[in-house]
Amino acid sequence: MSPVLDVRDLSVSFGGVPAVREVSCAVRRGEVLGIVGESGSGKSVTSAAVMGLLPPGARVTGSVRLHGRELIGAPARELTSCRGKAMSMVFQDPLSALTPVYRVGDQIAEAVRVHQRVDKEAALVRAVQLLDLVGIPRPSERALAFPHEFSGGMRQRVMIAMAIANDPGVIICDEPTTALDVTVQAQVLEVLKKAQQKTGAAIIMITHDLGVVAGFADRVLVMYAGRPVEVGGVDDVYYRPRMPYTVGLLGSIPRADKGGRWPLTPIEGSPPSPAALPPGCPFAPRCPMRIDACEEREPPLFEVGDGHRAACIRWKEVAPYTLGVPAVYGAPGSARRTPRRAQRTVLEVRGLVKDYPLLKGTLFRRRIGTVHAVAGVDFDLREGETLGLVGESGSGKTTTLTQILELAPPQQGGITVLGHDTARLDAARRTEIRRDMQVVFQDPLASLDPRMTVHDILAEPLRTHGQRRPGRRIAELLSLVGLDPSHAARYPQDFSGGQRQRIAIARALALEPRLLVLDEPVSALDVSIQAGVINLLGSLRARLGLSYLFVAHDLAVVRHIADRVAVMYLGRIAEIGQVDAVYQAPAHPYTQALLSAIPLPDPVRERARDRILLEGDLPSPADPPTGCRFRTRCPKFRAELTGDERRLCVDVEPEVRPLSADQGAACHYAERRDVV
Amino acid sequence: MAGFLARRVLNYAVLVVVAASLAYLLAATALDPRSNYADRTPKPPAAVVDAQLTALNLNDRTPLLQRYATWAAGVLHGDFGRSVGGTPVNDDLRRRMGVTFRLVVLGLVCGSLLGVLAGALAAARQYGWFDRLSTGLSFVVLAVPVVVLANMLILAATWANEHVFGRQVFLVSGEHSDGLGTGFWGHALDRLQHLILPTVSLSVGLIAVFSRYQRNMMLDVLGADYVRTAMAKGLSRGQALVRHALRTALIPVATYFAFTFGTLLTGATFTEKIFGWHGLGEQLINSIFRNDVNTVAAISFLAAVAVLCASLAADLLHAALDPRVRAR
Amino acid sequence: MTLSEEELAEELRDGVVAGAPSRTRLIAGRFFRSGQGRLGFGVLALMFLLAFAGPLVSPWSYLDKDFTAFLQPPSPDHWFGTLQTGADVFAVTLRGMQKSLIVGLLAALVSTALAAVAGAFAGYFLGWTDRTLTWVSDLLLVLPAFLVLAIMSPLFGSGQWPLFVITLALFLWMVTSKVVRGMTISTKEHEFIQAARYMGVAPVRIIFRHVIPNLSSLLIVDATLNVSTAILTETSLSYFGFGIQPPDVSLGTLIADGSRTAVYAPWTFWFVAGLLVVTVLAVNLVGDALRDAFDPSSKRAR
């Protein structure tokens, strides 16, 4: 069978700077090709080049053949007739990818009418059919809604409906689930599978998430510095990688299915700038297996197996990736887990409630209701302990965090930080507590003032709390987080993402706090960089005796770093307990669904897994369901419970009940079950 | 939405009241109607002047707040008082309102439509000849104040009438000629001849402003994901630009309209004065020179109402164009 | 990095680090690389030179009246000709330019500073601070600036032009402050502001140390463009006799006088009008080039 799409030696450069170099790949009907790479690896540029959607000023060479027709250099009319018909695309951000001022149904109908000679009504009917196909409830009604009236997952379904409107031969998905929560991601991937079955299209799945590819793709192409460095069947690449970069990538992912605190193996350094590529193998400067010959010339893709190729001259020596400790990278010394003893409590939250007014419209603002962002949350954090607070967007974890950081009296309930109740704090005491409680945010670029040097950034907390000559301390701090103290005169922009996050951590440590609040500290970083920051946080905790409140949506990261975990759903805690207990045998149906939705970078397991798919969207926090908040989407409520049992769920809101020594779930019918 | 609109209108009403009161108080303090009588020959006796000023509610010997109260009571009944000449301000302004309204609406329509069109064209072919030309021209236009532009137009028109046409094609003073006995078409042509230059002088600046703004908004939108989506569906660049980019880029331009309206009113004032149109703007300048407190306050009131109407119109336009701000 | 590590360590100990001037230099570089920026800057410099050094070379002062030459066309004696009063057009034009430039610069500076502070406070504190400031700026937008300045014009006579500058500035800041307010609200969401708050830095200090510096590109550009707005407003007001009062002259009063005699004595109008347009154009070019230099990704202009 000849490939539907055949890309040969595709290169793209912007103003002489190469973004993509010699990419070759092909997909057949019904096949899924995963393209994996970190940010800046050129994977998105590749997809835009194939679609012919690059901005003017891009120089494209090579060949892209769709059904045997050459697209590079083809006239604009020919490309226009291909796009959306023979080949279509699903973009990353479904919010900005739909025109805000037109109704969703009209936008899909437009895609139909561009390529098919049908009248407006017929196109709309087809649009409603497509919406139904991608699983949008009440499609004929929803077709009349505007994009802003849809949730992220629903918008992505609309994009998929638009992409399959003309039964294309190839669907290119550019990070289609990156902006979505993990349970929604599972739903959308399911829709994509269904769409593929329906149309028989080939799919090119571009992503940075090795887990998504493992379960979804047939073949994988790993990109680094604008070039493919390893191509092959999914099993070959995951179980028998022959390129040290792939090995490193797989080794640096925290796993939700692995207990015990083994240190991750970060890849040293950061990817090269495309404007200044090293002369030899672009990965050589970061490669633990580097020899002099690596720096002579860039290695071609060697045939290392059946349909498996890798760009490394020492591919024969790259040891097969063994689960646990990779052989290629020497693993740093392991840290041990602190047992939960009768230690002092550093943070205690009791019955915390926070409501927001729900405002409508940007122009004509008015209050139409109340968002119950946090509705009664209890947890505590002991000295030297890490509590992971996880939940999807809308779960209230950020509000909880803000409430703690504000140190203001809560609307209802109580917060006790380091022995002080925030409801009874005077200004002086509050300033004092701020010394002992510091915060690290998600986006390191946004959390560092771009107009200040690193020195000034680190000096700010010191000066604020009355230290006149912060010079020496700043040098200490920089070495503590693994940066060169001589870099103090630089600006944050001069650093890479991982280094910036290290600066943010150094700032948080400046006043020798006892409690560190970490708000998604690694989710903006690439996996290879992320591993280094996670390891740093682990070793700092051990050395400085810190307590962490670690807020994240990535359950794998939390399992890796936390001692205890609290899972939030719609402003309430669904399940809380010791990490291994919760991950190995979650008791709350939501935790079970959440854990089962995490894609694992392990193709065989991933294919064999039985996902618990949640239905629909998160209910509005302004109008939560009565009784148990999860019951509207609960698989147990729907399938397992009898009518009488259900009444309890509808009428009574469950409180967290202990199930074992350190595990509790807020479910009337909690039952421990292995799902990962 | 109706309740919401009502609240906004109420808020505007308060603004108008405060603005008009401030204008009255300022005018009553700074202007000196008594000085109008100083150069009269024979000099009227002080008692007569006082009596006349008191009758007009302009006597500076009456406490300011008392004068304000009298004025405000009149305004509440729809009476803006009398001018220094003793004629009712209402009658005078009613006549002039139409003149100004015609000029402003025409200038606004020409200015915004042509500006949006020019801006969209320029953005569609960024760095093309039209983009460069319109950018250059708008830079020059924005550097010319209305007073200079109007005078330049008059000079150019006078020159053209003499040397190109050999007869009066552009008429530079007033809004129509008196004693014309040539029927409807003659009148219409005469009006048009008077209308061209003031309209040009008023709208050229607007065209420049709107074209720049529309161009920038378009350029912002051109890189948007949904324009890419539109092209990925199979729309050509032109179709994607018109159907998706232009439509969305119009939204911020509509709100921008409210900001330009105040400038437009000031521009209309200058234009009327220079071209001898007997509108509100001309009367405003004249009445400041004549120390005509009541007329000044009345015109400020009307100006405030006009500005707020424009901003309300901009809000409604915004809501009409953008489903995201419409309340469901 | 020009500092050697030793020097740096030395400086670190003293608690002062010479901030690398990279950003300023980068922007200046970008500014002067653009033809627009060079042209605008050059012309503007020339205008300043003309306005302030020109009177030194002119044989006539702006107060002199040549009673042998009334309303004469340009000649070697009177480079730009003379007015009806016998005054030298070159001398009075330069005098007018001086005043207009000074008034424009000062008014722009004052209004931008006002806009920055009012906008940042409104956007940062929100609540009633915001409502009050927004209401005041709305009121000033509703009250025609022209009207108030015109009414107050009797107060600007006899060398009271600084009062005129202040009043002018009072009516120029609203739009910029609305923009600053909006940007403050979005800047406030930035985590570095949150970080400073949670560190315990006082709000007013955050505004002056983090918020306003991060809006400096917008403020510089707006200040530049406000210069041209101020010059244009001053001209229009003075044209009708509401701005700069005699015996002071400004470009506006000169254009008003010139437009009356322009038909038969074009030199009384065109030199002044031309210099005004060129000056404002140059200011706008500088502002636009600055905007591009600060934000190379957006190629925009007003």
TrEMBL record, chain A:
What topology in the membrane does the UniProt record assign? Answer: Peripheral membrane protein
Main localization of the protein described in the UniProt heading: membrane
Q: Cite a GO CC annotation.
A: plasma membrane
Q: Which SUPFAM superfamilies would you find in this protein's record?
A: P-loop containing nucleoside triphosphate hydrolases
Hey, which family's this protein in? Belongs to the ABC transporter superfamily.
Q: Which organism is it from?
A: Nonomuraea diastatica
**Segments traversing the membrane:** none
What name does the UniProt record give this protein?
ABC transporter ATP-binding protein
All residue ranges annotated as the ABC transporter domain in the record: 5-250, 353-595
Identify the Pfam families for this entry: ABC_tran, oligo_HPY
Q: Does the keyword Aminoacyl-tRNA synthetase apply?
A: no
Tell me where it resides. Cell membrane
The terms under GO molecular function for this entry are: ATP binding; ATP hydrolysis activity
Top-rank taxon, per record: Bacteria
> What processes in GO biological process is this protein linked to?
peptide transport
Q: Which UniProt keywords apply?
A: ATP-binding, Cell membrane, Membrane, Nucleotide-binding, Transport
TrEMBL record, chain B:
Give every ABC transmembrane type-1 domain span: 97-314
How does this chain sit within the bilayer? Multi-pass membrane protein
Q: Which residues form the signal peptide?
A: none
> What is its subcellular localisation?
Cell membrane
Q: Which InterPro entries match?
A: MetI-like, MetI-like_sf
Q: Which domain of life is it from?
A: Bacteria
Q: Name one GO cellular component term.
A: plasma membrane
Q: Disulfide bond: is it a keyword of this entry?
A: no
What protein does this entry describe?
Answer: ABC transporter permease
Q: Which family does it belong to?
A: Belongs to the binding-protein-dependent transport system permease family.
Could you list the residue ranges that cross the membrane? 12-31, 103-124, 136-160, 192-210, 249-270, 296-321
Any idea which UniProt keywords this protein has?
Cell membrane, Membrane, Transmembrane, Transmembrane helix, Transport
Give the Pfam families listed for this entry: BPD_transp_1
Gene3D superfamilies per UniProt: MetI-like
Q: Does the keyword Ligase apply?
A: no
Which coarse location class describes where this protein primarily resides?
Answer: membrane
From TrEMBL, chain C:
The segment(s) forming the ABC transmembrane type-1 domain are 101-287
Which GO terms of type biological process are on file? peptide transport; protein transport; transmembrane transport
| Gene Ontology CC terms, in alphabetical order | plasma membrane
Q: Where are the transmembrane segments?
A: 39-57, 101-126, 133-155, 161-180, 267-290
Q: Where in the cell is it found?
A: Cell inner membrane; Cell membrane
**Topology relative to the membrane, per the entry?**
Multi-pass membrane protein
Q: Which domain of life is it from?
A: Bacteria
Which is one Pfam family of this protein?
BPD_transp_1
Question: Where is the major localization of this protein?
Answer: membrane
Could you list this entry's UniProt keywords, alphabetically sorted: Cell inner membrane, Cell membrane, Membrane, Peptide transport, Protein transport, Transmembrane, Transmembrane helix, Transport
Q: Which family would the database say this protein is a member of?
A: Belongs to the binding-protein-dependent transport system permease family. OppBC subfamily.
- Could you tell me what this protein is called? Oligopeptide transport system permease protein OppC
Q: Which species? A: Nonomuraea diastatica
